[in-house]
Every structure is written in C-alpha cells, then in structure tokens.
C-alpha cells in the first residue's frame, strides 16, 4: 500500500489538462494544411499528388477562372502537397483542432485568373503561373529585355503552337516532296 | 433507400432542435458515447480507445463510452458509409433515444475520405444521417477527439472557418533562393531528396541553401563546418557533407574554368 502510494507520488500526474490548457504536439506532427494564397501559382501539383482527392482544381473556361479547393474533411494529412509544392504555398501546421459544425467551414477555396491565348483568344493558363515561369527564366540568366519576346511565345496555347509548327514545317518542305506526296 | 431527406428530418423538426439544445444544457457531466463503425479501417477505433485512456481521461468531463446505443446521448460514426453496414448503422441510430447528438468521426466519417469513390461506399455519415459535428483527421488525435466532443456539447468554440480567396490583381511569385544559380539549386535539391526523401530532403536542402546565400566559398565552408559540429545526428551530417561536396566541386570547376 505504502509502496504503491510512494510510487504514485514519484510518477506524478499522467493526465494531460488538454481542454483547459493547450496540448503540446510532437515535433513533425502533421496537422491542418495551411494555404498561403500569395505564394500559390495554381500549378496543380498538389491536386495531382493528393491521394485522397482532398485538393481539387477546376477550370472554368467561360469565366476565365481556375479554382483551387481543399476539403479538410477529406484530407488524410499525409503531407504530399507540401512535398510537391514548388513555391511552398501549402505547409502542414501543428494545428489539430479542426472540428466544425457545418461542412462549409471545412473548405478553403481560391480563384485564379486565366490568361488568353493571343492568337485564338481562348483562356488557357493561370496568369500567376506564367509570371512565375518568366521570373524563373530571368533567374536562370535570361536578360530582362528578352522577357517581352518570351512572353509573346508563352501566351500561345498548345493547340495554336501545334498549328504554327505545322505551318512552318509545310513551308520548309522542298517542293518536290510536296508534289510526290500529292501523287502518292 | 433511406436517407436524410426521406426519413430523418431531425434538423428541420423544430421540437427536436429545441430538445437537442436543452440536452446540451442539462447533460453536464454525463455524456454517454456510443460508437458505430460503418466499415472503417479500425484506425479511428484505436484512436477513440486511446482517448478514453487515463492520459486524456475524458471521464473528467463526464464523457464515457458505453456498449449499447440505448444508453447513448452521442453517436460517433466512424468509417465511410458502406453498403453492408448501412442497415446496422440505421438500427443503431433508431435504437438511440431522442434527442441525440450525431458526430461524424474521422476523415471517412466526414466525407468518405480516401474511399469516397469506391464501389461500395456511399460517402460520409451525412449521406444518411443529419450530422451535428464533423471531426476531421486520419485518424483524429485524442486531443482532436476531445475538442470535437467539446464542440458538439457547446463547451468549446469552433476555430476553423471556411475561406475563399479571389485574385484581384496578378502578383509575381519569385522563385526561392534568388541569389543561387538554378542549376546548383537543382543539383542540391535532387541529391537531398535522393538521400532523405522528399519532405526532409526539401527541408535539408532549404537549410543548406541558406548557407549558400553567403556567396563566398570560404565563408560558406566555415559556416557549414560550424553548423555540423553542433549537429548530433550522424545521418544528417553525412547528408550535409554530400551536399557540400556538390557545391565545392562545382565551385572548383567554375574557378578552374576562370583560371
């Protein structure tokens, strides 16, 4: 009896005082993913990496909006989004108090503008992503004066690029080959 | 098929809503919880049993897990709503006396989770029952469990809020480490990832690249050596040294070319 009491006094209290005092979490604890809208370039790497489809991206080509959405009620806190994010826009915080009474509170959404292709006028790429690519090229040593030309090349959608490629390829064919193909 | 709209209009039934509010006021320190497993992976159950252990001791708050739905005030639905477990879940729901508080526990309970598009899964708990509180987490930690039950009983405030950002003007996001050559950055990041995985590799590479902001080879060398002397983990030291080798080899090549 006394032995037991002695031991109990030595060990002290094992119960945490959680709801009344903050709970310490272990280092490296994966809690709520916190999204930094300023850093995000809407590249969609996290949406591809997300194994639970908690992060989704949708295009709206009529309005010219690409919308990003994370649903914490489907997130499994694996941290793959943090791994793949090129700009560090999403990081897992040690915050675990996520309970909500309404489902709407478990969503975090963001809308990005799309850029138009300057040949066909269709929306095709988030403007922020384009800016990021240009910034990365400048960092890689492209002079600032050339960025204007690069931007012109970039603001062409893949389909128009293919068409342009075909046109130049056909023009560069020697005439004889063209005639042969015509007969064949 | 029995669903929320057809049979359980609890939340729209004003009398029941009033009763539920009254229940939250009178329940005080006698909260009996019954958990219904609708087909989960047992992770949530293990975590519930971890949270009723003496370490978190929910009996302080009067929260107790009971063995029969007839005793329960709170129903914890864990796991995605699967086809075979739908009827037992319904029976448990109907066996629980009104007014009752329904909690969707864990990611699967909230929305079907990682199984949300599987062939035998209908989605979360809210595909059948009106849910009062969602507790996300895969599985929710004991702390999150206590917090969620606290929110359900109006003891604690809800912290999370839905967010919606709209882009007003396009701002330029600068790539990280602007003073370091992209090829060097790429080499270091790749090596760090190869050696210690994506997440930690990223953290290690970020830390190492901060040293490189010094620019001067001597300064960087001194800083890295000083940092490694304090580092106790031999694995980390080895990774940093490997990264440092890449940097020094590159610098030698560059200076050699210049010379």
UniProtKB/TrEMBL annotation, chain A:
Pfam family, one: Fer4_7
InterPro entries from the UniProt entry: 4Fe4S_Fe-S-bd, 4Fe4S_Fe_S_CS, NADH_quinone_OxRdtase_chainI
One Gene Ontology molecular-function label: NADH dehydrogenase activity
GO BP terms in the entry: aerobic respiration
One cellular component (GO) term of this entry: membrane
Key words of the record: 4Fe-4S, Iron, Iron-sulfur, Metal-binding, Repeat
Domain 4Fe-4S ferredoxin-type: 31-60, 66-95
Protein name: 4Fe-4S dicluster domain-containing protein
TrEMBL record, chain B:
GO terms for MF: 4 iron, 4 sulfur cluster binding; metal ion binding; NADH dehydrogenase (ubiquinone) activity; oxidoreductase activity; quinone binding
One Pfam short name: Oxidored_q6
All residue ranges annotated as the NADH:ubiquinone oxidoreductase-like 20kDa subunit domain in the record: 41-149
Required co-factors: [4Fe-4S] cluster
Keywords: 4Fe-4S, Iron, Iron-sulfur, Metal-binding, Oxidoreductase
SUPFAM superfamilies: HydA/Nqo6-like
Enzyme Commission identifier(s): 1.6.5.11
Family: Belongs to the complex I 20 kDa subunit family.
Name the record gives this protein: NADH-quinone oxidoreductase subunit NuoB
Species this protein is from: Thermanaerosceptrum fracticalcis
The organism's taxonomic lineage, starting at the top: Bacteria, Bacillati, Bacillota, Clostridia, Eubacteriales
């Amino acid at each position: 009896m006394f032995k037991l009491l002695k031991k109990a006094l030595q060990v002290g209290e094992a119960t945490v005082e959680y709801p009344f005092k903050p709970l310490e979490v272990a280092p490296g604890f994966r809690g709520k993913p916190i999204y930094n809208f300023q850093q995000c370039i809407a590249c969609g790497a996290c949406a591809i990496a997300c194994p639970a489809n908690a992060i989704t991206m949708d295009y709206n080509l009529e309005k010219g909006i690409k919308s990003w959405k994370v649903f914490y009620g489907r997130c499994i806190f694996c941290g793959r989004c943090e791994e793949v994010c090129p700009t560090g826009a999403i990081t897992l915080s040690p915050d675990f108090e996520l309970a909500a009474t309404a489902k709407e509170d478990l969503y975090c959404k963001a809308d990005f503008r799309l850029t138009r292709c300057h040949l066909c006028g269709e929306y095709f790429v988030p403007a922020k992503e384009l800016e990021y690519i240009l910034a990365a090229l400048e960092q890689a040593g492209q002079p600032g004066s050339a960025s204007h030309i690069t931007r012109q090349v970039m603001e062409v959608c893949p389909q128009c690029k293919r068409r342009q490629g075909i046109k130049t390829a056909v023009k560069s064919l020697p005439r004889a080959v063209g005639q042969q193909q015509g007969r064949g | 098929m029995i669903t929320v709209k057809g049979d359980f209009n609890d939340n729209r039934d004003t009398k029941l809503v009033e009763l539920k509010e009254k229940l939250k006021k009178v329940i005080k320190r006698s909260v009996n919880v019954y958990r219904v497993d609708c087909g989960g992976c047992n992770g949530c159950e293990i975590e519930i049993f971890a949270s009723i252990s003496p370490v978190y001791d929910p009996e302080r708050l009067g929260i107790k897990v009971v063995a029969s739905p007839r005793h329960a005030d709170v129903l914890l639905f864990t796991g995605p709503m699967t086809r075979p477990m739908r009827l037992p879940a319904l029976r448990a729901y109907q066996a629980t006396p009104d007014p009752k508080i329904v909690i969707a526990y864990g990611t699967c309970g909230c929305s079907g989770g990682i199984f949300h598009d599987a062939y035998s899964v209908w989605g979360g708990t809210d595909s059948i029952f009106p849910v009062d509180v969602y507790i996300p987490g895969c599985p929710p930690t004991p702390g999150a469990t206590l917090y969620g039950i606290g929110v359900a009983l109006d003891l604690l405030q809800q912290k999370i809020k839905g967010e919606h950002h709209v882009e007003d003007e396009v701002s330029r996001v600068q790539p990280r480490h602007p003073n370091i050559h992209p090829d060097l950055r790429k080499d270091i990041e790749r090596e760090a990832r190869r050696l210690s995985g994506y997440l930690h590799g990223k953290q290690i590479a970020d830390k190492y690249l901060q040293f490189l902001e010094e620019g001067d080879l001597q300064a960087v060398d001194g800083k890295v050596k000083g940092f490694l002397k304090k580092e106790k983990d031999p694995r980390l030291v080895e990774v940093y040294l490997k990264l440092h080798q890449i940097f020094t080899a590159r610098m030698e090549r560059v200076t050699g070319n210049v010379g």
